């Protein structure tokens, strides 16, 4: 029998045969969460916090399940309860920041990312996500600092580089942005968004229609339909 299946059956037997312990409920909730059974995992965590309302990890995991379901307010509520119990763990601050980002509440997200970063300065994901919040707030110089911090762990991250280029454009630095976008498409030759932004920047900032059209046509060939308007208007022979 598959070990994971055996483990799940054993947990189920324990949960239905007697009053489960907090530890058993937590393990069952995490197993369901990892199996993408989000509503089931929430039911386990609900039972758990009914027995132990000071279980910070359960509140945080419950928030993750709601987040995966796209229920941002419920996720924020769970992360907040986790923080009330344990304000020294960066994870619920980071997770709540992510939920705020989904609601485009960039200021609230920034506050949570700052708290998360203060608790653990070594998490590169915090720098990247905080950079996105700063980008949303049009604080481009600060966003660049965070994207550069995120790239220290691994300089070849196309998604981070793409957003770094957007911050460079916001900071009125099209030449550096073009260099960054060229690095993006070197690393990811099917990144249609990068080709599109590269083409638009070549044409609008530098007036280079030949290069711009080449990039825009590439974006269009990769399915980026927004490029069609530019191609039709500027790239017809």
TrEMBL record:
Residues 1-22 form the signal peptide. InterPro entries: TPR-like_helical_dom_sf, TPR_rpt, Ycf3. PANTHER family: TETRATRICOPEPTIDE REPEAT PROTEIN 6, UDP-N-ACETYLGLUCOSAMINE--PEPTIDE N-ACETYLGLUCOSAMINYLTRANSFERASE SPINDLY-RELATED. Keywords: Repeat, Signal, TPR repeat. This is Tetratricopeptide repeat protein. SUPFAM superfamilies: TPR-like. TPR repeats lie at residues 56-89, 124-157. It comes from the Bacteria.
């Amino acid at each position: 029998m598959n070990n994971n299946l055996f483990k799940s059956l054993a947990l189920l037997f324990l949960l239905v045969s007697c009053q489960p312990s907090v530890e058993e409920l937590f393990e069952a909730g995490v197993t369901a969460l990892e199996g993408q059974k989000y509503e089931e995992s929430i039911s386990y965590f609900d039972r758990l916090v009914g027995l132990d309302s000071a279980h910070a990890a359960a509140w945080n995991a419950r928030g993750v399940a709601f987040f995966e379901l796209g229920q941002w307010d419920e996720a924020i509520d769970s992360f907040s309860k986790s923080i009330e119990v344990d304000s020294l763990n960066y994870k619920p601050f980071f997770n709540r920041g992510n939920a705020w980002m989904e609601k485009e509440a960039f200021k609230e997200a920034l506050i949570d990312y700052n708290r998360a970063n203060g608790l653990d300065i070594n998490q590169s994901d915090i720098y990247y996500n905080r950079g996105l919040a700063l980008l949303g707030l049009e604080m481009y110089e600060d966003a660049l600092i965070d994207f550069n911090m995120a790239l220290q762990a691994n300089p070849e991250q196309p998604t981070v580089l793409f957003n770094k280029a957007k911050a460079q454009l916001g900071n009125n630095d099209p030449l550096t942005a073009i260099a960054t976008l060229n690095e993006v498409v070197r690393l990811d030759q099917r990144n249609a968004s990068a080709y599109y932004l590269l083409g638009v920047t070549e044409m609008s900032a530098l007036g280079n229609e030949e290069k711009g059209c080449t990039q825009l046509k590439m974006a269009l060939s990769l399915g980026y339909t927004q490029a069609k308007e530019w191609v039709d208007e500027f790239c017809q022979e």
